[in-house]
Write a structure and sequence with these properties.
Pathway: Amino-acid biosynthesis; L-histidine biosynthesis; L-histidine from 5-phospho-alpha-D-ribose 1-diphosphate: step 9/9
Number of helices: 17
Strand content: 15-25%
Number of strands: 14
Distance between the termini: 79 Å
Largest sheet: 6 strands, parallel
GO molecular function, one term: histidinol dehydrogenase activity
Binding site for NAD(+): 129, 191, 214
GO cellular component, one term: cytosol
Function: Catalyzes the sequential NAD-dependent oxidations of L-histidinol to L-histidinaldehyde and then to L-histidine.
């Protein structure tokens, strides 16, 4: 890995470099995606099945687009019992964590006859998109469905691509069934997002769409936003490790590569105050790449978006980490909790040498759907909050309103909204 000194100039250059990975910079695909989305909106199933045949080589129709109970039962016979048990353990950890995020309606009353409050309501229907291309991610199935279940969403509609034989990954079906998906449909790509957003004869319209996908899925979510809600437009995965001379270089190198293997555009960055550690991590990275199965993807990711930054002190390292606002942030220092208190921007923070990033991806419980491309400065991980909405509650008695009606009328008249003022005034004629 390249080793560079952390300066104001290098930090700016790296931030500029990382922003090139944003889905917003792939406008060349936008016209294609818009055509697909509009076609599915206008022609429904006919367009959806046509694109499925074109892109996935599968003959899907109204009779087989919905995954059947028998298909799910067969999937269980294709997955190792030990993996099913691991999926169940992970599901319970995710459920337990997200149950602590629940919000409840509340009301506050006043002796004068005023009652104010907030009514919390779960969304009626949510669409969960699950990729089905080069890799299979049952962990993402759990992470997207479980917060919706905890929130109380009634209908959780999942779509995922099938192969040319019309089959869906067995582990995807098992995870979806364990998490409690209401229905699973064989549809992928931009056409699936359009089907969820607008509804077709076979796939019902939803209120919100969540879940990761390729550039076509990301751009389709952007295209339908406003007609439905979405979680985010996710970019490639990224990890940043803050480490000092006490860190184990083998652990750090392994953790950096755990994200680099996701995508050729994934980013892996180490910020350290130790030159010796930097050199050892770089050497370990080279050794690991020789034996890892996705070495071509990893090498391209590391060569393009991988950095080891040498900082003069921990304060500079923290400042740079906050500027980068990484999706995943590991802290492997002598005093990791002290460093953690100074971190303002990160999707998920992993503390200490035994809290490696894959722990969060699969098992610990916090959600692994995280803000990318610096959006951790203003976005949060997927949570129960993403699956609820809030309504304000206002009640005033006549006596309570009478006490303040002149103030309200005065305010309304100052904005030249006389009908607003009149709406209050008529009650005290």
């Amino acid at each position: 890995m390249r080793i560079v000194n952390l300066t104001e100039e290098t930090r700016k250059n790296i931030l500029k470099d990382l922003l090139k990975r944003s889905p917003s910079n792939f406008g060349s695909y936008a016209d294609t995606v818009e055509k697909i989305v509009n076609d599915v909106r206008d022609r429904g199933d006919e367009a959806l099945f046509g694109y499925t045949k074109q892109f996935d080589k599968a003959d899907i129709n109204a009779g087989n687009v919905l995954v059947t109970k028998e298909e799910i039962e067969y999937a269980y016979t294709q997955v190792d019992e030990k993996l099913i048990e691991v999926i169940r353990k992970a599901k319970e950890n995710i459920r337990t964590y997200h149950e602590k995020q629940r919000q409840y309606s509340w009301f506050d009353s006043d002796p004068k006859g005023i009652m104010l409050g907030q009514k919390v309501t779960a969304l009626e229907s949510v669409g969960v998109y699950v990729p089905g291309g080069k890799a299979v991610y049952p962990s993402s199935v759990l992470m997207n469905i479980m917060p919706a279940k905890v929130a109380g969403v009634k209908n959780i509609i999942m779509t995922t691509p099938c192969n040319s034989e019309g089959e869906v990954y067995a582990t995807t079906l098992v995870a979806a069934n364990e998490a409690g998906a209401t229905a699973i449909y064989k549809a992928g790509g931009a056409q699936a997002i359009a089907a969820l957003a607008y509804g077709t004869e076979s796939i019902p319209k939803v209120d919100k769409i969540v879940g990761p996908g390729n550039i076509f899925v990301a751009l389709a979510k952007r295209a339908v936003y406003g007609h439905v809600s979405i979680d985010s437009i996710a970019g490639p995965s990224e990890i940043l490790v803050i480490a000092d001379e006490t860190a184990n270089p083998r652990y750090v190198a392994a953790d950096l590569l755990s994200q680099a293997e996701h995508d050729e555009m994934a980013s892996a960055i180490l910020i350290t105050t130790s030159k010796e550690l930097a050199e050892k991590v770089s050497a370990q990275v080279d050794e690991f790449i020789k034996v890892l199965s996705r070495k071509e993807i990893i090498r391209k990711s590391i060569d393009t978006y991988g950095y080891i930054l040498l900082a003069d002190n921990m304060a500079d390292a923290v400042e740079a980490a906050n500027a980068i606002a990484s999706e995943h942030l590991e802290i492997v220092t002598a005093n990791p909790f002290d460093v953690m208190t100074r971190i303002k921007n990160a999707g998920a923070i992993f503390i200490g040498e035994y809290s490696s990033e894959p722990l969060g991806d699969y098992f610990a419980g916090p959600n692994h759907v995280l803000p990318t491309n610096g959006t951790a400065k203003f976005f949060s991980p997927l949570s129960v909050d993403d699956f609820i909405k809030k309504s304000s509650i206002i009640y005033y008695s006549r006596e309570a309103l009478e006490e303040v009606h002149e103030d309200i009328e005065s305010f309304a008249k100052s904005e030249q909204l006389t009908a607003h003022a009149n709406s209050i005034a008529v009650r005290f004629e």
